[in-house]
């Protein structure tokens, strides 16, 4: 699907099993550099599993994964974590202030996050510097997700993995987070791989889409494919809306 762009991540015939059950089968394809690709498909299709393979949280049983031209298992874990960031629906936080949470990734690497740098990260996600001293327990869902995204930006990742980051947000916050991700993509050229159950969102913000079913990638291409899928199962899924 992506011959017109360089791949940021490439899967070559990847399988992944849990306790003998094949969760992913023969995954082959590329996520284009600097583009937004959405992963859509029914619950249990294997989307989160595929995302976790992209940053080394899981390793394949068979096949190869490349980040740019390098095999994923040739990266040191810290190097991989810097290159490939991840944000989750639950936006997990440690107790304490926003600053404490933003500083965490650098602390884990034995470094310190300066106040100005922390303010600049908040600025990047559209939050005022005064949020640094706020307790994370006092944040709204949308603010929490923005802080979670700011925390991933600390390492200036080339690739950002997003797992259902807007599914618990109200409409206004959802739109703000969509715009924020589009801005990060444009401003920093960050490659985005975004799991969403919201097909309208995939059409609105995605350049490309992978449709997954039963552990396989059944259709890929420009996001427009979701308007008129070639595959009958994808057609039924799209017509049924996001389950
Ligand atoms: N730790 C685990 N142990 C056993 N089975 C698992 C585990 N993690 C995932 N699975 C199974 O693997 C399959 C794929 O799960 P995965 O979470 O990747 O799907 P998904 O497409 O992300 O689903 P959803 O949209 O509901 O998040 C499911 O059948 C799930 O039950």
UniProtKB/TrEMBL annotation:
<dbReference type="InterPro" id="IPR003593">
    <property type="entry name" value="AAA+_ATPase"/>
</dbReference>
<feature type="domain" description="ABC transporter">
    <location>
        <begin position="9"/>
        <end position="238"/>
    </location>
</feature>
<dbReference type="Pfam" id="PF00005">
    <property type="entry name" value="ABC_tran"/>
</dbReference>
<keyword id="KW-0067">ATP-binding</keyword>
<dbReference type="GO" id="GO:0005524">
    <property type="term" value="F:ATP binding"/>
</dbReference>
<keyword id="KW-0547">Nucleotide-binding</keyword>
<keyword id="KW-0813">Transport</keyword>
<protein>
    <submittedName>
        <fullName>Phosphate ABC transporter ATP-binding protein</fullName>
    </submittedName>
</protein>
<dbReference type="InterPro" id="IPR005670">
    <property type="entry name" value="PstB-like"/>
</dbReference>
<dbReference type="InterPro" id="IPR027417">
    <property type="entry name" value="P-loop_NTPase"/>
</dbReference>
<dbReference type="InterPro" id="IPR017871">
    <property type="entry name" value="ABC_transporter-like_CS"/>
</dbReference>
<dbReference type="InterPro" id="IPR003439">
    <property type="entry name" value="ABC_transporter-like_ATP-bd"/>
</dbReference>
